[in-house]
Amino acid sequence: AAGLQTSPGPFGTTERPTPREDITHYNNFYEFGLDKSDPARLSGSFHARPWTLRIDGAVAKPITIDVDQQITAHKIENRIYRMRCVEAWSMVIPWDGIPLAEILRKAEPLGSAKFVAFRSVMRPDEMPGQKDSFGNIAWPYVEGLRLDEAMNPLTLLAAGLYGEILPNQNGAPLRLVVPWKYGFKGIKSLTTISLLETMPPTSWNRLAPDEYGFYANVNPDVDHPRWSQASERVIGSGGFFGEKRQPTRMFNGYGEQVAGLYAGMDLRKYY
Amino acid sequence: MVISVWWTRRSFLNLLLYTSGFVPACWSFWLGVHDKLGPDPVRSFEHILGLWAFRFLLASLAITPLRIVSGVNLTGYRRAVGLLAFAYVVMHVAAYIALDLRFDFVTLYRDITRRPFLIFGMAAFLCLVPLAVTSNRLSIRKLGRNWRYLHRLVYVALIAASIHFLMAFKTWHVNAIFYVLFGIGLLSVRGINFLWGKRVHRRIYAE
């Protein structure tokens, strides 16, 4: 993969990044299959380039951005974030990208905009998992954030990994990274961002509303119905007997930056 | 003379069954120790053990339907297959407690008392314990008819294990559905045979 020009960004962590091999071969990307090894195996014929991102809805200036010309060609930030999956495992990932707020401001959101809806790509010919959707997600994958969550400085649009352009299995060419929320909020292969006045539907919430909420903030005190969220397995921590299990932190350890967004909210109800 | 040769062949095949039955567990354990089970080796090991437990459970339950449908009698190998299923269940649970939870008994207690996914799994395990314990000639002799009643618990174990298996995935998983349908098929053969047998029975009495 091509190298990217990056500079160190804020919010770094001292934890050791997960090996690249693990980050690129342990993926939940159901568009390519249900098993975690499927995306690396089956995403070879996916065309991530050329690619444009559309921003529309409640904005003064709807725009269409060419990913290579307007994002990856420029200097982008390197941000090492913790990633916590709803399945109770975690990684530490060195992303390369730009703050989502920076892109959203270009489209000039209107005062009426309260939510941001994200839509992924629909290409059954290139994504085998989209052909057979029995009991599965209704494609394309959609996600959403409140506008203030989207504008938070932590929220990132990632275009790279370990200083190189994003591999297909990690959501090329552009994916969302919201490090204080469970990984499924990080929609991959992003095509459209729409600013809205009302809360948009989200894929996992539509499939199993009692298991996956709109907010999906990492929260060790609110368990998933099928497993505890109190602790997490650290992926790539060294084989069979070296495997590490560590306590999960509120907001995945980003409380200082984001706890204020949820002041006064019952996080048991708004999970 | 003929009988003793046949007996020898059967015990030899049983021995072969026991030893080859442990190959998947030993092989994946070796892979795990050498960090060749992918990025999440403990989870992969748990899944491999669980899958083989389910396969052996289905195999042990296939022996009677096979005899009903084709007349092939493998009853002499059922104990070995059933005990292999139990051994894999024990290893599956042990991997979960030792390698995954790292003996965190507080989490274990919370999980198996609250989460249906694990409650069904544990229920299947507990159902199989008395079956494994009584899988010997002495118990068969001592329990008499009750032994057969007791061993009907295997149906409860299969149902609980099936639910556990289906719940292990966030969406409907084709492989899991396939295995569960196979189990339903096996139970149906027995069910149909049972009802059919009763009808024949009644007809004989009516005449």
UniProtKB/TrEMBL annotation, chain A:
Mo-molybdopterin binds at N27, Y30, E31, C85, S120, N170, R175, G186, I187, K188. Its EC number is 1.8.5.-. One of its GO terms (molecular function) is molybdopterin cofactor binding. InterPro entries: MsrP, OxRdtase_Mopterin-bd_dom, OxRdtase_Mopterin-bd_sf. Keywords: Metal-binding, Molybdenum, Oxidoreductase, Signal. Binds 1 Mo-molybdopterin (Mo-MPT) cofactor per subunit. It comes from the Bacteria. Its cofactor is Mo-molybdopterin. Residues 48-204 form the Oxidoreductase molybdopterin-binding domain. GO terms for biological process: protein repair. Pfam families: Oxidored_molyb. It catalyses: L-methionyl-[protein] + a quinone + H2O = L-methionyl-(R)-S-oxide-[protein] + a quinol; L-methionyl-[protein] + a quinone + H2O = L-methionyl-(S)-S-oxide-[protein] + a quinol. It is an enzyme of class 1 (oxidoreductase). Belongs to the MsrP family. Part of the MsrPQ system that repairs oxidized periplasmic proteins containing methionine sulfoxide residues (Met-O), using respiratory chain electrons. Thus protects these proteins from oxidative-stress damage caused by reactive species of oxygen and chlorine generated by the host defense mechanisms. MsrPQ is essential for the maintenance of envelope integrity under bleach stress, rescuing a wide series of structurally unrelated periplasmic proteins from methionine oxidation. PANTHER family: PROTEIN-METHIONINE-SULFOXIDE REDUCTASE, PROTEIN-METHIONINE-SULFOXIDE REDUCTASE CATALYTIC SUBUNIT MSRP. Heterodimer of a catalytic subunit (MsrP) and a heme-binding subunit (MsrQ). This is Protein-methionine-sulfoxide reductase catalytic subunit MsrP. It comes from Acetobacter oeni.
From TrEMBL, chain B:
The chain crosses the membrane at residues 12-30, 50-69, 81-99, 119-140, 152-170, 176-196. InterPro entries: Fe3_Rdtase_TM_dom (IPR013130), MsrQ-like (IPR022837). Residues 49-161 form the Ferric oxidoreductase domain. Keywords: Cell membrane, Electron transport, Flavoprotein, FMN, Heme, Iron, Membrane, Metal-binding, Transmembrane, Transmembrane helix, Transport. Its main location: membrane. GO terms for biological process: protein repair. The keyword Flavoprotein applies. It is a multi-pass membrane protein. GO terms for molecular function: electron transfer activity; FMN binding; heme binding; metal ion binding; oxidoreductase activity, acting on diphenols and related substances as donors. It comes from the Bacteria. One of its GO terms (cellular component) is plasma membrane. It is found in: Cell membrane; Membrane. Its cofactor is FMN; heme b. Binds 1 FMN per subunit. Belongs to the MsrQ family. Part of the MsrPQ system that repairs oxidized periplasmic proteins containing methionine sulfoxide residues (Met-O), using respiratory chain electrons. Thus protects these proteins from oxidative-stress damage caused by reactive species of oxygen and chlorine generated by the host defense mechanisms. MsrPQ is essential for the maintenance of envelope integrity under bleach stress, rescuing a wide series of structurally unrelated periplasmic proteins from methionine oxidation. HAMAP family: MsrQ. Heterodimer of a catalytic subunit (MsrP) and a heme-binding subunit (MsrQ). This is Protein-methionine-sulfoxide reductase heme-binding subunit MsrQ. It comes from Acetobacter oeni.
